[in-house]
Amino acid sequence: MTVIPVGGEGFAAYDVVVGRGLLTGAGERIAPFARGRTVVVTDETVSALHAGTLTASLTAAGVRSEIVAVPPGEGSKSFAELERVLDRLLDLGLDRKDVVVALGGGVVGDLAGLAAALYMRGIDFVQVPTTLLAQVDSSVGGKTAIDTPRGKNLVGAFHQPRLVLADIDVLSTLPAIQLRSGWGEVLKHGLICDPDFFDWLAGDGAAGATGDPAALERAVVRSVEIKSAIVSEDEKEAGRRALLNLGHTFGHAVEAELGFEEAALAHGEAVALGCVLAFRYSVRLGACHASEAERVTRVTAAAGLPTELTQADVFSADALIARMAGDKKAEGGRLTLVLARAIGDAFLERTVDAADLKAFLIEQGAT
Is 66 a catalytic residue? Predict the structure, then answer.
């Protein structure tokens, strides 16, 4: 078991606990925050797999719990489901001393976290992420949000959890596509700032992409360490935290054009594709050597992740650019991208030329 602290000047410190078998003992760790009662927000699939273990652990620790289950999938990050969760919290009469527990992947964590941020102007919540992507990324750092037809994560709040419990054992229930999706975010962390980590992921660590528990645990720990260091320095993305969005501006545009249909492309797959495109565009701008982009492409493909736009669909370059202009990192209508000088050396480029980016996207298979 590894305990990784997260904390900065603007928010209270909390721990991310990574290990095996954590779910069975989760109640004792959550009890100090729950003060006797909690609501577990989950989705219907995760509820059937893991809610019984969690609620039994809470009961053993003297914590009463209620389950609120939402439909699985990105569609639950909506105003309608947010309202339903908030109505249920009101029905149950939660007060400011109670706590919400998010048991699930990134969708559940984002939805439950935003509900906790809004309820009575903010109550505590705990993240118990059950997907690889959520364990290495969305459960850490306090970003909570829902989607709108105009884009992903455009309505939300920064609301840090009090605790994160990342149980490696629950990853054994994931379908292969969800492991691959999470692996896209793992690769991203190495690409941002740790070339040695990326080297390991490209070699012995690659076993994690197919479910090896030891490799997964090491990958989760290092990913959380990287994200913790960045978030602790820059909670609200005023500076360095923006680097964590490597691949996301391209990836979110693709997801939006697909209507956020995970059946077409999972989030981590979109991020992986976005990272490949970001490295290729960096080469086009002369910031990065072509061999670096070629290696990123090879390692990404070896993990079973997409490396070409055409693997997802046929996209309009103009439509993709319009989506990218609406990204949260855009400023004054100017396109902003996270690019790279090399593997492990990402940077923020705030003066991207739209015409040049369109030409690049057409080269990559857009129309």
Answer: no
Q: Catalytic: 289? A: no
Catalytic residue of the set 245, 255, 257, 280: 245
- Name the average pLDDT for the chain: 94
Candidates 77, 152, 180, 252; catalytic one = 252
Domains and CATH numbers, the chain: 2-173 (3.40.50.1970), 176-363 (1.20.1090.10)
| Active-site hit among 143, 218, 280, 323 | 143
Q: Is 185 in the active site?
A: yes
pLDDT for residue 35 is more than 90 = no
Mean pLDDT across 224-237: 88
Query: Among residues 77, 159, 162, 241, which one is catalytic?
Result: 241
CB-based contact 137:223 (threshold 8 Å): yes
Cα separation, 304 vs 313, in Å, equals 17
